[in-house]
Every structure is written in structure tokens, then in C-alpha cells.
Design brief:
about 140 residues, mainly beta, 11 strands, 3-stranded antiparallel β-sheet, 3 helices
Length: about 140
Amino acid sequence: MKGKVIAINISEKKGVPKKTIEQGLFRVDHGLEGDAHAGNWHRQVSLLGNESIEKMKAIGIEGLCTGKFAENITTEGIELWTLPIGTKVQIGETIQEVTQIGKECHTKCAIFHQVGNCVMPTEGIFTKVLKDGIVKAGDEIIILE
């Protein structure tokens, strides 16, 4: 099973949509260099499939683009939420391990307030970085195990 990276997204503060950047440096036990959510914990990197974003567009939400759900990596071609915890994936130069599927939203985002629903809590995933490297749009995502 293979997918690809659509975008890399970063924010310096928590609770705001991320801006898309050309490439990102992902470091072991840290996550995306310069991102507010990075650090030595189990949710270093967040990923969301473009397919999930398209679902929200299909119900009429306008203005959606990569980073609006605060995901670090926007993907295509893999149903991320079906990957078991512990799955290792190669993303660009990095190797990452799935640590969590979905999340509880403590403060509802603007999208939730607009339509009463959001895909990140059920379809977004989190990883920790096992091997440093650069990830950029167009990079392949390969399921290792």
C-alpha cells in the first residue's frame, strides 16, 4: 500500500490553522522542526488524508485547504485511520510510527462550529519520528509493517 504527501503544514502556535511550506525537517523524538505541536511525546506529527478533507468539502464547507485541520502532513492514497497503532511508515526520508488514531477535541475548531462536525477526531492519525529526514510534497508514503 502506497500513498503520497500532498502538503507539509506548520504553525508556530497551537490552536491555529497551519501554513503550507515547501518541505519540512522531521527529527527523531521531536517531530516537525519549528512546529508548535512538536516535542518528545506520542503525538509529534499529525497526518490527515486529502480524502477526508474532500468529505468535508462535499457537505458544503468552503475555503478548505491543506493545514486547515492543523495536520502537519496532508496525504493521499491511504486510509490512514485503518493503520494499526505501531505501524511503521516511510514518509520521504523519514521513518515514522503510528501512535494514535484520532483524538478528542477539547476545544472545538472553527470547522466544527460551522457545520457541527470535523474529520480530524476520527480520521486523523499521529506518529512519532524514528528516523530524521526531509519530507516534501510529492514524496511517497510506504507502509513498512
